[in-house]
Amino acid sequence: MFSCSNEQNNIEADSVGKWKLIEVLADPGDGSGTFEPVESNKTIEFKSDGTLITNGSLCEPYSDEVISSGTYENNTITTGCQDPNIATISFELKNQYLILNFISNEGYSQKFEKIN
Q1: What is the DSSP letter of 43?
Q2: What is the pLDDT of residues 1-51, one digit of tens each?
């Protein structure tokens, strides 16, 4: 028998590894936004102990605050950023991509491709 917690554990286990930012979705507020390619060296690495690190800041693009590590559990990243809109970020795996979904009135997401 399967439960949500087993599915959740599989998603988190599949997230472990290093991911590179490849696309960004910035919706104008009407639902018409699509992912667009970006040139970026930003990576995020999910570790098996429930922690993660990035070579940028988890607070981007909403804050200049630099926080490069956090924790994850139940498809939610806890960033430690002061702004409540980016204190947590939801994530999902979709078609082998990691999608970070930021709290935003317009809609803002980042798509990452696994690099190891």
Answers
A1: E
A2: 344 444 455 667 789 999 999 999 988 878 888 999 999 999 999 999 999
| Rounded distance between C-alpha atoms, residue 116 and residue 83, angstroms | 31
The pTM (predicted TM-score) of the whole model is: 0.86
79: exposed, middle or buried (Cβ count in 10 Å: 0-12, 13-18, 19+): buried
Cis peptide before 61 (omega within 30 of 0): yes
> How far apart are the C-alpha atoms of 52 and 43, rounded to whole Å?
10
- Residue at 96: amino acid letter: Q
User: Residues 6 or more apart from 88 whose CB is under 8 A from it?
Assistant: 76, 77, 78, 79, 103
Residue type, 100: L
